[in-house]
Specification:
It is a single chain. It is built from 22 helices and twelve strands. α6 packs across α8, α13 packs parallel to α16 and α17 crosses α19. The chain is α+β, with helices and mostly antiparallel strands.
């Protein structure tokens, strides 16, 4: 008999007799079962008959983690990611072998809104149930309600290369263990019997000076269902629970594995193809969150570090940072170049910080965010034009950057700047009657539209909606619901090709209707708009329309270069999360605000 491991490979259990080894073999079941919870039928009953069967068959409810409970923490001694993935269960340590040295293991643990308010309520037990001394500190809070969004934990563990172990992280506030529960206590030394049941580990020591070890020899990861329920980087559905689009799961992995030249062979480019377009770190972290394994964690982490080292230029005091494609003489009085806006990866750097605790990631978020904040006057009120309204993606990347900044530094002045971008976005849409963010298509894409004074770009609109959903998760702004619903209505009613298999590359171009399905690979980038509309309105027709277009997008998926791979990966996981009904009570309450 064989059992799939968290990486999707098969492991052989023969010869494993120790309890810890059995627990390691149970890891796939733990990783799989956490995401399959009741509630999907209730969701389906509220749906229209034409999509009820789809929801009953494929939807997976994702409740938020309870305020008290436990989650398995998988430790993998993968030698900094350099060793190949383990295809079979690790052998027993030879008798008499020198035990491996203890090393510092750290992990960033995300929580859904309202689930945890004090990092001292975290406790850790090893595979035998013994308490493990734990240090912890908050990394970020949810601005609404101020509960912890992610907490850094650190402890010591000893594993030989290739070994795995499952620890248990408890969270919440159970009663203190009775005197005598722990071996060696005063009561036990006096001969008193130990209390019945599993002992409660001591609370984590709060340590604000705690430094992470994200690239150490032991990686520590959580089940993908936990990441999905936490909403730490947006709505998700674990890949193992995606029964509706299995072709996406296999195709996206095959594309990355077989990419020629390889993804990481690409370098920095200010004009041609470049590896981080569409936010490579964010796309790779989305992949990790949906799978929860150490190998994908290492890959996403490496991309985030590469981006900071090669694509950011900091001011001497390191308070500001811009992309290296910006001119050397740039100051905040000069609008950032369009090419620089789309290369400023706020989401990916925020992901890296929330999932590793690396101070360098936080520094990048704050410095790029501050550069943009100081540049807003030039971007929106310059002598020539409002740069952010030239294309939807200019506004999108700016809002993503500022939202990431506010997520880590929720000061009133940053909120005011972020709301200012939202105000401009709402007004922009309202100035037209279509629901699109209308602009001069020729001005933005002269080689693609010779005449198009009033039009819109579906794929750029998708980026802006993604940014608006990040903004809404932080602020609860009720206006986002109407904006997203109008954008989704425009996409379905006016921006589809006549065969309804794809979105028009540009809508409103007078010299080219773009009425063909040649860009159907962009469907995976755009259908999250329909998923967001469903999440905000609960109108099930968005599922029917989105799924049909997603089917075509999966079939036509092109992932032969980093740009196209990132394009497909960066948001389609969010679509799957949206369509899973976002059943968690904490997030459901957040989404219902302002209806």
């Amino acid at each position: 008999m064989t059992t799939p491991d968290p990486n999707g490979r098969r492991t052989a259990p023969a010869g494993l007799g120790r309890a810890l080894a059995a627990l390691v073999l149970a890891a796939p079941l733990l990783w799989t079962s956490c995401g399959r919870l009741s509630g999907q039928v209730a969701v389906a009953r509220r749906a229209e008959p034409r999509v009820r069967a789809v929801l009953e068959e494929n939807a997976v409810a994702l409740p938020a983690p309870p305020r008290e409970g436990s989650v398995p923490l998988l430790l993998v001694a993968d030698a900094r990611g350099s060793a190949p993935a383990i295809a079979v269960a690790p052998a027993k340590r030879p008798p008499g072998a020198t035990p491996p040295p203890e090393v510092v293991v750290s992990a960033a643990v995300p929580f859904a809104p309202g689930a945890l308010r004090d990092a001292r309520l975290l406790r850790l037990r090893d595979g035998r149930g013994a308490a493990v001394p734990l240090r912890a500190k908050p990394l970020a809070v949810w601005p609404q309600g101020r509960s912890i969004r992610s907490a850094l934990i650190a402890f010591r563990a000893a594993l030989s290369p290739g070994e795995r172990a499952i620890y248990t992280l408890d969270h919440g506030a159970p009663p203190l263990p009775p005197e005598g529960a722990w071996p060696g206590s005063a009561a036990q030394r006096a001969g008193a019997p130990a209390s019945q049941g599993a002992p409660v580990a001591p609370a984590a020591a709060l340590d604000e000076a705690l430094l992470p070890n994200p690239d150490g020899p032991i990686a520590a990861v959580l089940p993908p269902s936990w990441y999905a329920a936490s909403e730490v980087c947006g709505p998700q559905l674990p890949a193992m629970d995606d029964r509706r689009f299995p072709g996406f799961e296999s195709g996206i992995e095959r594309g990355l594995d077989r990419m020629t030249p390889a993804y990481d062979s690409y370098g920095v480019s200010c004009s041609g193809p470049h590896r981080t377009y569409y936010d490579g770190p964010h796309a790779l972290y989305q992949r990790f969150l949906r799978n929860g394994d150490a190998a994908r964690y290492r890959r996403a982490r490496a991309e985030a570090v590469w981006y900071r080292r090669h694509e950011l230029r900091f001011s001497p005091d390191r308070r500001l940072a811009v992309h290296v494609c910006e001119t050397e003489d740039w100051t905040p009085a000069k609008p950032l170049a369009w090419e620089v806006l789309r290369r400023t990866l706020g989401q990916g750097m925020l992901d890296d910080y929330l999932l590793t605790g690396d101070p360098a990631a936080k520094e990048a978020v704050l410095a790029t965010g501050e550069a943009l904040r100081q540049n807003l006057a030039a971007l929106t009120g310059g002598k020539k034009e409002d740069v952010l309204r030239v294309t939807e993606r200019n506004m999108a990347w700016a809002m993503m950057t500022l939202s990431s900044y506010y997520a880590l530094d929720p000061r009133p002045e940053l909120l005011a700047a972020l709301r200012g971008l939202a105000d401009r976005t709402v007004a922009w849409q309202q100035q037209g009657a279509s629901g699109a963010f209308e602009h001069d298509l020729h001005r933005a894409d002269p080689s693609e539209c010779e005449r198009g004074p009033r039009g819109g770009s579906p794929f750029m609109t998708a980026l802006l909606v993604d940014a608006l959903m990040d903004y809404r998760a932080l602020t609860g702004d009720p206006r986002v619901r109407e904006v997203v619903a109008r954008a989704a209505g425009w996409l379905e009613e006016r921006a589809l090709t006549s065969d309804r298999r794809a979105f028009r590359y540009l809508w409103g171009c007078e010299t080219d209707a773009y009425d063909d399905s040649g860009t159907a690979d962009l469907n995976l980038l755009i259908v999250p708009v329909l998923g967001a509309a469903y999440a905000l309105t609960r109108d099930p027709r968005w599922i029917a329309v989105g799924d049909a277009l997603a089917d075509v997008g999966v079939k036509e998926m092109r992932v032969k270069q980093p740009k196209q791979w990132n394009q497909a990966m960066r948001a389609f996981g969010r679509y799957l999360g949206y369509r899973a009904a976002l059943a968690g009570p904490a997030m459901a309450a957040q989404l219902s605000a302002g209806r």
